[in-house]
Amino acid sequence: MYFTPKKIFSLFLFFAFIFSIYPNDKISDEDIYKKVYTYISKRFPKQIFNKINNNREIFFKDLNVVLKNEKEDELILVDKLNFLDKSYEPKNIILLYDVKDRKYLLERYDIYLAKIAERPLQKLAEAAKKEGIEIMISSGYRSYIYQANLFSKYVNLYGKKDVQFFSAPPGASQHQLGTVIDLGSIDDSYADTAEGKWMFKNAWKYGWSLSYPKDMEHITGYKWESWHYRYLGVEACKFQKEWFGDIQQYMLEFIDLWKKEKAKLN
C-alpha cells in the first residue's frame, strides 16, 4: 500500500491524538513527589524530610498501603485552613448508649460516633480493661451547628483571640468527622491519670491518634489536648509514627497535598 505524504501526516496526527487521550506512561509516585517536594522540604523538620527523601521507595510503599486502607474520610485534613462544609455529615453515625456489651464508659447518654470508629474503640477499651484501665468517653460527634453554638459561647466568655487556641470555629472541628473522641476530664490533668498514660502509650495500636500533642501549638494551631484522639486506622498510625515523628498534622497535611497533586496529574 502506498502512503502519500498527506496520508502519513494524517496518520501521525491521528496517533498523536490517541496517545494524548491514552498516555503511554502511567503517573508514578516520583511524578507526584516532585510536585510536593518544595512544600515538605520547607514545612517539615529536617529530620523528617530527610528520612522521607532518602528512603522514597519504602515510603511510597507504606503510603500506598495507608491510602488503600482508607474507607470513609479517615484521613481528611480538617484544621483552621481546611474546613468541612456545613452540610457534611459522617456515614453511619450511631448512639454509643445503644451499643450492646460496651467495654468503655460514657460520661453522657447522648454521645454519637461513626460506626467505622466504634469497633476499634471497643477493641481499645477491651485491651485497656485487661490492664485494669477504664476508658471514659466524654464527647464524640458534633454537628456543624453544634460547633457553631459552642464556639460562639466561648467567644462571648473569653474573647475570640484566646478562644482560637482551644476551640475550633464551625467547619474546622475534627469532631464533625464523627471519628474523634474526648476522654475523661477533658483538661490537662487527664495526661497524669492512669487512663491518660495508657492512651498515650497504646492508642495507636488500635488506630487512634493524639491530634494535638504537647509543644506543637505552632504546627497544629491548638494548645495541647491530652484527651483528644482521632481514629485514623492502624496502618495510618504506624505510618505516622514511622515517617512523621508521630505528629498527626504533618501526616494529614502530606496526604492531603499528595491527593490533590495526584488528581491534577490525572
UniProtKB/TrEMBL annotation:
InterPro entries per UniProt: DD-CPase-like, VanY-like_core_dom, VanY/YodJ_core_dom, Zn_M74/Hedgehog-like
PANTHER family: D-ALANYL-D-ALANINE CARBOXYPEPTIDASE (PTHR34385), PEPTIDOGLYCAN L-ALANYL-D-GLUTAMATE ENDOPEPTIDASE CWLK (PTHR34385:SF1)
Organism annotation: Treponema denticola H1-T
GO biological process, one term: proteolysis
Single GO MF annotation: peptidase activity
Protein name from the UniProt record: D-alanyl-D-alanine carboxypeptidase-like core domain-containing protein
Residue ranges of domain D-alanyl-D-alanine carboxypeptidase-like core in the record: 111-233
